[in-house]
Structure formats: C-alpha cells, structure tokens
Amino acid sequence: MVFGAGEELFPPNSVYGFDIVDDHVDEGWSYWYLIHNHTPQRNGALGIPVPSTSDVRLVRWLAETRGLERTWVTNGFYTFDAAINELREFRWR
Fold first, then answer.
1. pLDDT in single tens digits along all 93 residues of the chain
2. What is the value of pTM for the model shown?
3. Torsion angle, CA of 82/49/15/6, rounded to 10 degrees?
C-alpha cells in the first residue's frame, strides 16, 4: 500500500507516491485501485463521493501508464467505486 497526503486543496505531485507505485509495478505488482478522498467542506457539508473531471483524467492516465484497474472516491461516509472502463462516459478536462 502506498499512502500520500497533503494539507493543500490540490497537493503537489510529490505527495502522490507515483515513483513508489512505479517501482512496485516494475517488480510485478498490480495497481489494483486508487482511493481518493473528497473531504468535508469548510461549511461542514460532506465532500461529493464521485470523481471530478480532473480525477477522471488522472485515473484514465494512471490506467494507461501504470495499469490502474479501479478507483474509489470517498467522503468518509459514502464511497464511489468503479472500474476504469466504467468511466468511459464521464467527462474529463
């Protein structure tokens, strides 16, 4: 398991751990899933448990370049779970 975190709304790529994932994939491991957290908002509302357009672009790229199979998006209470091919109809930017 690789865990990356940051306090920023959009953490820098350095906290994602892609270099570690690459090492594991090179050793024969599978990149089975990515868990992404949409945290509660400042007003206390829950984050939306579906991938944003940026998230869709990221997971499609990870599927193409590293073999990512599934993505989960959670707000800590509800979780969206989909195989990468199920995101075909989702918009991305």
1. 787 877 777 777 778 888 999 999 999 999 999 999 898 888 989 999 999 998 999 999 999 999 999 999 999 999 999 999 999 888 776
2. 0.84
3. -170
